[in-house]
Fold this sequence. Notes:
Helix content: over 70%
Radius of gyration: 12 Å
Largest sheet: none
Shape: globular
Distance between the termini: 14 Å
Number of helices: 4
Strand content: under 5%
Amino acid sequence: MKASEFDRLLEKAREAIQDAADVDDSGRELLEFLDRDIRALLKRTEDIGASALPERVRVAIRHFEVTHPVLTAVLSEISTILSNAGI
């Protein structure tokens, strides 16, 4: 996947995070961490290999899989891409 395509997917994830409604406190905290990680990744200010993003994505998928299917689908795609990249 090209960097520009990955950036578009990350932006799509940020939009899904911003649009998530009816989220409990734990879920809101997860989304805030994910949003911060994604923004840092888009800016390329952190080493993605050392990032907590892959684990946070997995936790968020488990947390939102029933209540927020669109967000879960986007996060699943990101998880797959990170995994394929060895991250």
